[in-house]
Specification:
The structure is a single chain. This protein has about 800 residues and is an alpha+beta fold. Helices cover about 35% and strands about 25% of the residues. The chain contains 22 helices and 31 strands. The strands form 6 sheets. The chain has a 6-stranded antiparallel β-sheet with strand order 13-12-11-16-15-14, sandwiched between helices. Strands 2-1-5-4-3 form a 5-stranded antiparallel β-sheet. Strands 7-6-10-9-8 form a 5-stranded antiparallel β-sheet. The longest helix has about 40 residues. The chain starts with about 20 loop residues before the first strand and ends with a strand.
Length: about 800
């Protein structure tokens, strides 16, 4: 009998397909009326042995009849049946077969049954595949989307529906840009197109997949895609598996944020800069807005008081252009019971939504709340900045607009971020404290503005190093000497910090002491060399209890010059220091070729004095090596710039100093080393202000000295000082050999008596019975200063008397 025409699945995997299944037709009495070749192949019965016989008698063992009859009853009741039954092969063995039975109606009331069967193993495998396919679309936790050749969605499974919140039928027939935001739809469509065109599968490609109906909700998915083809190679579309990895992506992003914070926060030892780095990092990966508020003492480098009390200063704001009530540098009021106040008091991060602001906050600062709500902020984390047990301030993180609200995990990240940043801020605060102390110490040791001196006009600059290396040991000094002379000194102690500044102060004090002895420049430098060697020995012996050296002064350099405005003579010596420059009144600049000498502290090596005469109005420029190294270490270029700036000898000295600093120091950059600059313009005393007499050692010469001085003082209008000056000239009576008497009129009256003796006069208190010994005592009482200086040819006793007020 011919098989009836029926529609069956043509899938090659379907065991019941006409080309694969065994077919039979039964009448309403169970008699076989049709038998296919595939049935003969599977069961061994040819059609002529089967057709016309009852199928139960032929194909079913007696033991299986109860089961078969139950199946028949169910099939008749429902009009069809599907399942597995045991049947008998022609050779007598028992064969498990899967059957699909369906009732069909012939003309009239006749009914027939069409059976399609296949080996049970194939049917079970096919059922398993069908169950897997059904599970992918109905129960799988991994999303599945299929696209047609036109890149339109054919079907999505329930996992996609659940994750996106969109009904499964909504995307069907639409392209991704119709239900995803444009920024995310573009990569999706490009990915589908690539797989369609090339057939290359994509594995675990991560991308953002935000839905148009909820663009603020972040969703990161991992997509694997492959092209679907039929057996003939016809392209049917693309299938994608989609896994929501948003939580994993956020965890990775948070970890990356903390790693970035470790690299970007604390790059400098500046409190404000560190706060800005914190704000920038937070906005980059955690918040839409960030503000960092520090207790005022912290911004100054001081230790905050306990209890986190005191005003808060806004140290950083990111992005800096957004509209909020308080900008950088403003005092930020702390509202009672606000999240910021709570986080400082409890020392833990506070997570809150600002849309639920309590009425009392609104009443206390209505403008601040209105601006915050106007920005669309909806979520806040306030995290304290606590380091080494000290509360330094707080960081406020805000999210606004379509950004997702903060979660507890975000608060944990904010806590870790603020803890790391707090250590960096406290390091910067402590450095600022030490820097300020060292700078205060150093500035206190440097001279104040030089007063008007008869020998020179002076201008100076001192620029501390940038915060990275710390305060150095550069110094300068202008020291008035006897005879209207002046000593100029510039030096540099190796190293940075408080110890360098303290060592600089000791050297400056030593220079003044040695200068007061009126020693030659090479002798002064040699004395400093001895002192540095002694200090180094002391510091090497000073340990911290663990056997390590606390600080060691490695050495120092200096240049020392003495200028006499009467003779225009200048003597210099240096110890490993850059050579001074001299600018003559005609603008010629020369670097003095005085012997370099070894740096201070090496010991045992000689120093030499260099002598020259300077025309009136010459510039003598002393400086430290920081000036030459400020411009990227280009020493030759720096010397050229310095040479050009010093050619204008007639310009005001302050202008010249300013020009030198501008030319040699890069704009808006602090020097990497301290800079000391001292420029002196020489003066010459007018001849009419100096009187010099050579007197022989005779009995009448003392009277002659008094006559000469009285006459000159009368000529100068200083007759009131005649008596005191005559006391000084009495030193002539105790001189050895010819005597030189000199009077100098500057801001004071200087009287000098020079002879060939090296015996120093001593101040003593004479008894009432003594006939002499009171002269020097009286001189010391009536003069402002007095002293003795030694030369190669003898000594000079000198005094200074203030001029009477006009």
């Amino acid at each position: 009998m011919a098989m009836p025409s029926m529609h069956f699945s043509e899938s090659p995997e379907d065991p019941f397909a006409l080309r694969r299944g065994a077919s039979a037709v039964l009448d309403d009495q169970g008699t076989v009326v049709g038998w296919s070749a595939r049935a003969q192949e599977l069961l061994g019965y040819p059609a002529k042995e089967v057709i016309g016989r009852a199928w139960q008698d032929l194909l079913v063992d007696a033991l299986d009849l109860p089961v078969v009859r139950s199946v028949v009853v169910d099939a008749v009741r429902t009009g069809g049946w599907f399942g597995v039954l045991p049947v008998r092969h022609r050779d007598g063995r028992r064969v498990e077969m899967g059957f699909r039975a369906r009732a069909i109606t012939r003309d009239g009331d006749g009914q027939e049954w069409v059976l399609v069967g296949a080996p049970a193993a194939e049917v079970i495998a096919w059922q398993r595949d069908r169950a897997l396919l059904d599970g992918l679309y109905r129960r799988s936790p991994i999303g599945l989307v299929t696209y047609g050749p036109d890149s339109r969605v054919i079907r999505v499974n329930r996992a996609v529906e659940k994750a996106s919140g969109v009904p499964a039928e909504a995307p069907v027939g639409r392209r991704p840009r119709e239900f995803m935001v444009d920024e995310d739809a573009g990569p999706t469509e490009e990915r589908v197109r690539h797989v369609l065109e090339t057939g290359e599968p994509l594995i675990f490609t991560e991308q953002s997949a935000r839905a148009r109906h909820d663009p603020g909700r972040e969703r990161i998915v991992s997509v694997s895609a492959f092209r679907m083809e039929d057996p003939s190679g016809r392209i049917l579309g693309v299938a994608e598996t989609i896994e929501d990895v948003t939580d994993r992506h956020r965890a990775q992003r948070r970890l990356a944020l903390l790693n970035e914070a470790s690299a970007r926060i604390g790059t400098s030892l500046d409190v404000t800069q560190t706060a800005r780095e914190l704000a920038e990092v937070a906005v980059h990966g955690l918040a839409d807005y960030c503000s960092v508020d520090l207790l005022k003492p912290v911004t100054l480098g001081d230790e905050p008081v306990s209890g986190a009390s005191g005003p808060l200063l806004r140290a950083a704001l990111s992005p800096p252009e957004h509209r909020i009530p308080f900008q950088e540098g403003d005092v930020v009021p702390l509202l009672p019971d606000s999240p910021q106040a709570r986080c400082l008091f409890e020392r833990r991060p506070i997570l809150e939504g600002l849309l639920s602001l309590r009425p009392e906050w609104y009443a206390m600062d209505r403008r601040r709340v209105e601006i915050a709500l106007g920005l669309g902020v909806h979520s806040l984390i306030a995290a304290p900045l606590v380091a080494r047990g000290l509360v330094l301030g707080l960081v406020s993180l805000w999210r606004s607009g379509h950004s997702e609200p903060f979660e507890d995990d975000d608060a944990a990240v904010a806590q870790e971020l603020s803890s790391r940043a707090a250590v960096c801020i406290d390091n910067a605060r402590r450095f600022t404290q030490q820097q300020s102390a060292a700078l205060t110490l150093q500035r206190s040791l440097l001279p104040s503005a030089a007063s008007d001196l008869p020998a020179v006009e002076v201008a100076c600059r001192y620029l501390p190093a940038s915060s990275e290396p710390g305060i150095g040991g550069d110094w300068f000094d202008v020291i008035p000497l006897s005879g209207a002379r002046v000593a100029l000194v510039v030096g540099d102690v190796v190293g940075h910090g408080i110890h360098a500044a303290a060592s600089m102060g000791r050297l400056r004090a030593a220079v003044r002491t040695l200068a007061s002895l009126d020693l030659e420049p090479d002798e002064v430098v040699a004395g400093l060399d001895d002192l540095v060697s002694l200090l180094a020995t002391e510091l090497e012996a000073n340990t911290d209890g663990n056997g390590s050296v606390i600080e060691q002064m490695l050495g120092a350099t200096c240049v020392y010059a003495v200028y006499d405005p009467v003779s225009r003579h200048c003597s210099l010596a240096r110890a490993g220091h850059p050579a001074p420059m001299v600018t003559t009144p005609d603008g010629q600049v020369t670097m003095l070729d005085l012997p370099a000498g070894p740096p201070l502290g090496l010991g045992g090596l000689p120093f030499e004095t260099y002598d020259l005469d300077l025309p009136e109005g010459s510039l003598l420029t002393l400086y430290t090596n920081g000036l030459l190294e400020a411009r990227n270490g280009d020493i030759d270029g720096a010397l050229e710039h310095l040479h050009e700036c010093l050619t204008h000898s007639a310009d005001p000295l302050d202008s010249t100093c300013h020009a030198v600093v501008d030319a040699l120091l890069p704009k808006e950059h602090l020097p990497i080393d301290d800079i000391a600059l001292l420029i002196a313009r020489t003066r010459v005393l007018p001849p009419q202000n100096v009187a010099t007499w050579q007197l022989p050692l005779e009995a009448t010469s003392a009277a002659r000295a008094r006559e000469l001085t009285t006459a000159k003082l009368t000529e100068w209008g200083l007759s009131d000082l005649a008596f005191t000056t005559e006391l000084v000239t009495n030193a002539y009576r105790y001189a050895a050999g010819p005597v030189t008497l000199r009077l100098i009129r500057t801001h004071c009256l200087i009287c000098e008596v020079s002879d060939t003796s090296h015996t120093s006069p001593h101040l003593r208190r004479a008894l009432s019975t003594d006939e002499g010994g009171r002269g020097l005592f009286l001189v010391a009482q009536v003069t402002e200063r007095w002293g003795t200086r030694y030369t190669h040819d003898g000594k000079t006793v000198w005094t200074e008397q203030p001029l009477p007020h006009a």
